[in-house]
Amino acid sequence: MGNVSMTATGEQCQEWSSNTPHEPRSYFTDDKFPDGSRKAAKNYCRNPDDWSTGVWCYTMDPEKEFEACDVPLCGKSSCC
After folding, report:
1. pTM value?
2. pLDDT tens for each residue of 37-47
3. How many CB atoms are located within 10 Å of the residue 69 CB?
4. What structural domains and CATH numbers belong to the chain?
5. What's the rounded mean pLDDT across residues 53-80?
């Protein structure tokens, strides 16, 4: 959870429910999001595929499909 919507390099995140500029993978169904749905996840950094390095998002840059977000993992820092 959280509301970070920018990647570690400063790219704005794409809405998870949007298909532009990138089409999210079809297996990223609503149940993969702690918010309850892709729409409720807005453009926040999430980890719907259990990426081992943490949260990420599709970017608004048509040339960069996705990037990691700079959000500390709970239990690995003093974030929680």
Report:
1. 0.86
2. 999 999 999 99
3. 22
4. 1-72 (2.40.20.10)
5. 82
